[in-house]
Amino acid sequence: CLSNQRKLSKDRDRKTAIRS
């Protein structure tokens, strides 16, 4: 699902931002 992929990408980016 495109929406699911978009959510995963956003969550991954958010997690990376927190780590950074």
From TrEMBL:
Region called Disordered, residue ranges: 1-20
Domain of life of the source: Eukaryota
Ranges of compositional bias, category Basic and acidic residues: 8-20
Protein name: Scleraxis
Species annotation: Equus caballus
